[in-house]
Amino acid sequence: MNLTNCTRAVEFILVGLPKVGRMDSVMHAGIFLLYLLCLMGNGLIIVMVILDRHLQKPMYFFLSNLSCIDIGHTTSFIPKLLVNYVSAKNSICFYCCITQLYFYFLFGVTEFFIMTLISLDRYLAICYPLRYGTIMTSGVCLKLAIGAWLGGFFSILYQIVMIADLPYCTTNIINHFYCDVGPVLKIAGGDIQVIEVLGFLVTVIVIMSSLLFTLISYLFIISTILRMPSTIRQQRAFSTCASHLVVVCILYGSVFFVYLRPTVKNSSFSRLKSVSILYTMVAPVLNPFIYTIRNNEVKEAVRKVLERKTPGLSNLMA
């Protein structure tokens, strides 16, 4: 078939979520609930960091960036997923799919950079506490965050342009519940080897370098904590790092399983959709709770805001 003369598909059909008997309505209701929890949990962190000056520190600044990413990441595909379910038409226009693909990976790649910055912040705070304030100034934090967002913006831009230029003539059915690069390339015509190589390089460079930096940072952090003379200080230091390590395990574990794979044409994406749910829906909901459930500063900030709205609430919370 001559792919150069074919008529390009104007829309794609998304296969959708994995089937669980007759539980489709329950599954989509659960996704809607997860999305609301994601918006509320991450939105609360952003609002708290803006309103409470005690939270205007590097760690919370990076955490608020992570919350913005989680909101953007889920918003890039969940509303469309829910609309498709309500309308019973699992279609998405060609350029809508390419746009969704780009923003999905923009937020995804930026998340790894922000996670690396959180590791850097914890390393400096624990290993160099006396110099921490002079190193992690507000200006430095802002430049690091901008660099992370620009890194996410440019790292996958060229690949998306190449994917948009491919012919899609044989089928328009994408075996996923959103436009992911693997399922999209699987139905594409033409030569996709260059795109695959670029994607693999970006995945390895971004994910592996981020993970390596995080692991090295925590080796130094743990070594420093173990040398602290006070048990109370050790517990406090461990508690500030434990939440980040939990998020790191969830994030990297699921992404390794989904994206470090052989060639796209030989891949089956049916089994990967369940893992994608963990990475794309569950993790963004858990992040704000994992980071704040044992964080006294955030809980105190929330308590103060609630007291302003509801006088006398402190007596009920005591």
TrEMBL record:
It is a multi-pass membrane protein. The chain crosses the membrane at residues 26-51, 101-120, 140-161, 200-226, 238-260, 272-293. PROSITE patterns: G_PROTEIN_RECEP_F1_1, G_PROTEIN_RECEP_F1_2. It comes from the Eukaryota. Coiled coil: none annotated. InterPro entries: GPCR_Rhodpsn, GPCR_Rhodpsn_7TM, Olfact_rcpt, Olfact_rcpt_6C-like. The keyword Transmembrane helix applies. Gene3D superfamilies: Rhodopsin 7-helix transmembrane proteins. Belongs to the G-protein coupled receptor 1 family. This is Olfactory receptor.
